[in-house]
Amino acid sequence: LPLVLGLSLGCSLSLLRASWSQGGGEEQCPGAPGPPGARGGGARPEAAEGRPVPGHEDFRPRIVPYYRDPNKPYKKVLRTRYIQTELGFHERLFVAVLTSKATLNTLAVAVNKTVAHHFPRLLYFTGLRSAKVPHGMVLVAHGDERPIWLMYETMHYIHQHLGSDYDWFYIMQDDTYAQAEQVKALVTHLSINQDVYLGRAEEFIGGDEQARYCHGGFGYLISRSLLLKLHPHLDSCRNEILSVRPDEWLGRCIIDFLGITCVSQLQGQHYHTYELAKNTEPEKEEEEEFQAALAVHPVSDMTMMYRLHKHFSRIQLDRAYQEIQDLQMQIRNLTSLTPAGEGGLTWPVGINAPFLPKSRFEVISWDYFTEQHLFSCPDGSPKCELSGASKADISEIIESALEQLNSRYQPLLRFSKRQLLNGYRRFDPTRGMEYTLDLLLEAVTQKGHSHVLAKRVSLVRPLSKVEIIPMPYVTEATRVQLVLPLTVQDLDFVANFLDMFAMNTLDTHDNALLTLLFIYHPYDAQRVSQVDVFAGVKAMVGELEKRYAEVKIPWISVKTEVPSQVKLMDIVSKKHPVDTLFFLASVWTEINMEFLNRCRMNTISNWQVFFPVHFQEFNPALVYRGEQTASSSTDFLRDGHFDRHSFAEACFYNSDYMTARTKLAADILDRDEVLESMEVFDVFLHYSGLHLFRAVEPGLVQKYALRSCNPRLSEELYHRCVLSNLEGLASRSHLAMALFEQEQANST
């Protein structure tokens, strides 16, 4: 009894004390009435209706309590596809370039080649478009070349299609050169909560001395809040304001209806411009105003645009190199204060230290090369000719080494290359590509004396900034249509394929269907009424359909001597909808849910096709030689290899195949014999602009089987099939052991 009374009394006193503390404190809950100007809990001051009080910029997050009206019916909340949309994030900057039909193929192309790839999003706006739009440019034509109409339609288009996606809108002409990196840096220092009209301020002709408009030739920046306020007045501005210049018309519209004038300086940021005179030499221009300009106008032709871009790119590059040197000096000065001291300083300064292996299995090997040959070849051969990207890479490294040596020792010595004695390179995933070169050099002194010497240099090509490539959104709910071509030689493996398909897809109710493609030889096709070579397979299919009542497995019969993969796919493609996701399988494939999901995720309509590299197990007779095979789940990828020569498996959408196939048909006309030398991979590679994603697929394992190579196919396809069979026998060590045992048996 005393214990119960004590607990009751203690709880009562605790509740009373909590209520007193809450009622007597100065801090109030959000939404509770309080004295004017009171602020509690770190939240920003708000008006009675919950909106921020004007003039305050407090972007600290606050919790908005969920409230549901009990009188209204419950409605399921639909989540957005991306978290960025749900949180209300906007992209930073959109750029609009005003061009015309006369300058679309000249100045607009120059803008596209110089600065377009530096901006996140850029569109070209014109009145009338030419018959052919230059490659790589997104053009919006309004149908009228009048300048005021073009400006009105452009502002209306930006608000309607892009107003809810971006915070800043930069509008420029095609005769303007803008430093893209400087413009992007400018918007990062401006507040998105203000109405901004920033550019080169100009006076109106015969107008108010206080009002200014932004000169369109030098570009101008408009904030999203200003665009939203301006849009309701655009029609009134078009009807009431008369002007010849579109930039002056827009400036007058903003001033008359919003009371905002153009400024060249805002929040400590300056919009520097430079007016380019005739016959100006950008390389010789040393004015500080020119060097700091964000926009240069007017640019008369494409050549001047490229010269300006080269000049300003050199300025930015010099600034970057100087900043790197300053950072390296700071690192050197601070290294002495670290526990490791100066001995902990890595080379190059500021780059990650080399990878330190913890065992001999983690050692990164070096690849040896000369100027003509590479001694670590992709195909496994000991020596191959240096060509392509590898040759360009090594040539660039040698030139860079000579440039660094001359910059360090000139004017005392000047080096020239005689020969590359030895070259080594390796890829370190923590820092980049490392090189070690033994160079035979000729050193020439200032007096003209020369001497030949050998010198070892080390270089590093560091990993650059990692970029996230945007990819379209895909799901794992897409239905996969499996297509299995079968010949007479494949009959022994069909039963295992159907069993794995039933166990991994039908039993698990995976969203996958199967279509069989029976390939009859002309001789077998004539005797199909007496003896059907595929009768056993059709019986197995019937048993599956009885076991799974809701499943139907259709088959298609084809008569041909040369089973071309493209011709077979043409037949299947016509019998399925355009949005079908195909998985072109082989009879040795063991289907599983893990791979089907990766097939769905890696195949994107109108964007990417997926060609997996399956894992091929070796011949157990050569690998184990009578011993018991490894049954451990951790060793299931041990005794085999990824077959790079096989392109039999593929995941792609029917619409993408039909598009590429149409281009192929226009190219080959009526020469159907060309199709016998092609695979589906070749169709997508040469006749589609899609990404071809080819990667090793550990979930696609095939048991060993000797493939039958059809000699009627093209020489390349037949040779690839033979190589696949030979490399699939066993590894080199297993083959060596088999030969060794055979020689020992013969000697005895």
TrEMBL record:
Keyword terms? Glycoprotein, Golgi apparatus, Membrane, Signal, Signal-anchor, Transferase, Transmembrane, Transmembrane helix
Gene Ontology CC: one annotated term: Golgi cisterna membrane
Q: Which residues form the signal peptide?
A: 1-18
Fetch the Gene3D superfamilies from UniProt.
Answer: 3.90.550.50
> What are the Basic and acidic residues biased-composition ranges?
46-59
Where in or outside the cell is it found?
Golgi apparatus, Golgi stack membrane
Q: Name one GO molecular function term.
A: N-acetylgalactosaminyl-proteoglycan 3-beta-glucuronosyltransferase activity
- What InterPro entries does this protein map onto? Chond_GalNAc (IPR008428), CS_glycosyltransferase (IPR051227)
Q: What is its EC number?
A: 2.4.1.-
Domain of life, per the record?
Answer: Eukaryota
Main subcellular location of this protein, as a coarse class:
Golgi
Topological category with respect to the lipid bilayer: Single-pass type II membrane protein
Region Disordered: list its residue ranges.
24-59
Q: Which family does it belong to?
A: Belongs to the chondroitin N-acetylgalactosaminyltransferase family.
Protein name per Swiss-Prot or TrEMBL: Hexosyltransferase
